Amino acid sequence: LPQAFPLPSLPRKQPTVLVVCGPAQNGAIGLVCARHLRIFDYEPTIFYPKRSPDPLYRDFTTQCEKMDIPFLSYLPTEVQLINDAYNAVVDAVLGAEAEVGEGREPCAAILATLKHIRIPIVSLDVPSGWDAESGSSGGISPDVLVSLAAPKECARRFVGRQHFVAGRFLPYDVQKKFELNAPEYPGTECVVAL
């Protein structure tokens, strides 16, 4: 996810961002996102309640810790605390990982809290609680969607403010194999607004 986060969409007046990470691939992407936010002078805080034993994910966690990115030990259930402390929330809880399941803990409690937040939510790839193909009305309603590689079918149901795709890094043979019509990326941008 190098430089694949739409930083201009986050105002700098209060650069605090809560990055909520699940235990699978989307959570790892959230950890990488937090690193990039820190590099670009944002103040990320990570909530990562169920850490993956995967060595790569542990490495991402260590990198965040070495960058002095704080980790929350719990997610406040009082949503006003989150609304007051952060400028935005990055949703990296479930993504397209259907096997994790919306109803299992800690994901169910996290989604219940995120559904009531009033600050902008930026979902990575697939909004948590959505089915990657059909979408879902039971999941969260993000303000921003960052589709990785290419928009998933559920993105047709996205009604938030901004939709970005981060797919410039896809090899041409993959684009051809899956018949992807990649958008034009201006200059050296790795992300483009749809």
From TrEMBL:
An example molecular function term from Gene Ontology annotations: NAD(P)HX epimerase activity
Domain YjeF N-terminal: 1-182
PROSITE patterns to which the protein is assigned, alphabetical: YJEF_N (PS51385)
InterPro entries linked to this entry: YjeF_N_dom, YjeF_N_dom_sf, YJEFN_prot_NAXE-like
Top-rank lineage group of the source organism: Eukaryota
Family annotation (NCBIfam families): yjeF_nterm
Stated name of the protein: ApoA-I-binding protein 2
Originating species: Campylorhamphus procurvoides
